[in-house]
Design a protein that fits this description.
Two copies of one chain form a homodimer.
Chain A (H helix, E strand, L loop, with lengths): L1 H10 L1 E3 L3 E3 L7 E2 L1 H15 L6 E5 L4 H11 L3 E4 L11 E8 L4 E8 L8 E9 L3 H12 L3 E11 L4 H7 L4 E9 L6 E2 L3
Parallel strand pairs in A: 4-5, 4-8, 8-9, 9-10
Antiparallel strand pairs in A: 1-2, 6-7, 10-11
Helix pairs in contact in A: 2-3
Chain lengths: 191, 191
């Protein structure tokens, strides 16, 4: 997606440890007009999938998911990372391994909001190791729903998540795939 | 806002401790069509304020803020509750007192995304004790920006936040004000 890549080149900041910081338009300040274009692009790529619900993970997936949902005319559900006393007792759980923290954490969705036969589009901001997506897939599977696609804004193509998930047969569409953040340059895969 | 009140009456769940759970359309599953109407209503109420930026607080304000921002054509900034290694070192800080946890926590916005003279609309899902709004106001004041309005989806009118903030001269618009959650009934203030 050309507009997105331009924005990443213009405003993305490369930090140590292969981190790409996109705080000016995605993760702290949010460029809603850009999100509209991202939402339309997800719709274009998944239009024949009969999506019935969009699933994401708090925090940074929420803005993208709700804007995109406008083009699909479906509700959004976001998985919660923290155990809340107000969350339903009956939940689907997924387990996410965090490489930074070197430990697993649980993510949860109330059983009320995912149903058997739902066609789920998972949306997230970044794909790196793919662990968050695997945790969300666990939840979709537990609900006996169908994971019909995964829409990612920025994929770190030099990390293993993308190939891992594609090898598992998951239909992933990443709007920008970065093959390298090194040597003073952001290199996109031509896709 | 009639549509919102209807939705609260139909799907809101009253829990012990004066808690209103709106997980089916606002805090877990998100009804994006309803958020569109909420966004339009905020625009109607703040249309003459020359808003330049919408500020909210993670997590539950984000969805509402980005959908509303489409009608104002301005960016959203969300304050962060957790100290992230990727957040800029130069931040505006606010302090929020949590009655549930009986302690203060810090919220932060990078200095890059709020500027002197910005006309800020703060948006949040709930107003109860008003502490989150006070913390956000601290940040707006520190940036020398103008807090021109606060848009709240659901105000708990039986808690002190609303009167506290209005007494401080803050321009608050709440789309539904609940005066009582007791005795098996949700009672709205006629506004």
């Amino acid at each position: 997606m050309h507009l997105l890549k331009e924005k990443i080149l213009k405003e993305g900041k490369r930090l140590e440890g292969n981190i790409l910081k996109v705080d000016s338009f995605l993760n702290h300040q949010i460029d809603v007009a850009l999100l509209n274009e991202i939402g339309k692009e997800f719709k274009r790529r998944f239009q024949d999938k009969n999506i019935t619900k969009i699933l994401t993970l708090e925090v940074s997936g929420i803005a993208i998911a709700v804007i995109a949902a406008q083009y699909f005319h479906v509700p959004v559900v976001f998985a919660k990372k923290t155990e809340s006393k107000n969350l339903d007792k009956e939940v689907y759980e997924g387990s996410v391994y965090s490489f930074t923290k070197a430990q697993h954490y649980k993510i949860r969705v109330s059983k009320e909001y995912l149903h058997k036969g739902d066609n789920i589009l998972v949306i997230d901001d970044f794909l790196a190791n793919g662990q968050a997506i695997l945790g969300l897939k666990e939840i979709v599977d537990a609900a006996d729903a169908n994971l019909v696609g995964v829409g990612i804004v920025i994929e770190k193509g030099f990390q293993k998540g993308g190939s891992l998930l594609r090898a598992a047969g998951i239909n992933i569409e990443s709007l920008a795939i970065i093959d390298s953040l090194e040597e003073d340059e952001i290199v996109f895969r031509s896709n």
